[in-house]
Specification:
Layout lengths: L2 E5 L2 E4 L4 E8 L6 E8 L6 E6 L8 E3 L7 E6 L4 E6 L8 E9 L17 E2 L3 E6 L1
Parallel strand pairs: 2-11
Antiparallel strand pairs: 1-3, 3-8, 4-5, 4-9, 5-6, 7-8, 9-10, 9-11
Length: 131
């Protein structure tokens, strides 16, 4: 069992930056792909970014809408995955969720872009970007 706790959300002006954190507890998540998703009311939760298992290289994958502005990374020592969000836009406003998928046999983050690819979810953190 993996427990995920997000933090770092808040209110920021357009063009600003935020860094979200996803801390894992419960067991080591060395074989887990970790992703970030976001959801606005009335819409489906959408993929934002994913990072590969530990020691598989920092393979990452991004949604086109955030490519070049967001960066996903992981700190193995802190058991934490980050989402650095720069040049934020009002359309980035959403609840952001961290998710983990056990991938003991490997795979690319490109294979983990759907909600049901992931078995563990955090509670979400609100990001609001004002214009």
């Amino acid at each position: 069992q993996v427990q995920l706790v997000e933090s770092g959300g808040g209110l920021v002006q357009a063009g600003g930056s935020l860094r979200l954190s996803c801390a894992a507890s419960g067991r080591t998540w060395s074989t887990y792909v970790v992703g970030w998703f976001r959801q606005v009311p009335g819409k489906e939760r959408e993929f934002v970014a994913a990072i590969n298992r530990m020691w598989s290289g920092d393979n990452t994958h991004y949604a086109d809408s955030v490519k070049g502005r967001f960066t996903i990374s992981r700190d193995i020592a802190k058991n934490t995955v980050y989402l650095q969000m720069n040049t934020l836009k009002p359309e980035d406003t959403a609840v952001y969720y961290c998710a983990a998928a056990n991938a003991p046999y490997g795979g690319s983050p490109r294979d983990f872009v759907r909600n049901n690819d992931y078995g563990y979810w955090g509670q979400g953190t609100q990001v609001t970007v004002s214009s």
